[in-house]
Amino acid sequence: MKLRFLGKNSQGGECPTLYATDRDSYLVQGWKIFANDLLMQLTIPEGETAVEVPTELFEHLEKDGLPSGEFRRLEDPLMILTPGGTYVVQGQEVTDPEALAQMDIPDYETVVEVPKAAITALLEEPRGADLQRRAQPAL
User: Per the confidence metrics, is the pTM higher than 0.90?
Assistant: First the structure.
């Protein structure tokens, strides 16, 4: 997997980082989640994990040709917006040795892969059908 660095929100060493891949996806390097209150809100399937990143990290999507601006809705792969102004992002845990070798990942961080289409959809205004579906009560 080939990576293209999009950005991070620190001038120092390791910190949450965003990459574009040659597989039409993004790699989100972020903090491992240890807080029980966050973990209890998630259902994480086998092979997936979640990371916490500052909301500002996604400003770097502009470098990949996506419109700047805020996400219009909170759904997969963005699972939670925390009171501290961070997102919890869930996706396939990255285990590809070639990809991991291109990153500097401290012990307290990990990396998830999310489809570009899923991120792009969150930047768009919800369509009528999406609004109706969200307004329907759960069965």
Answer: no
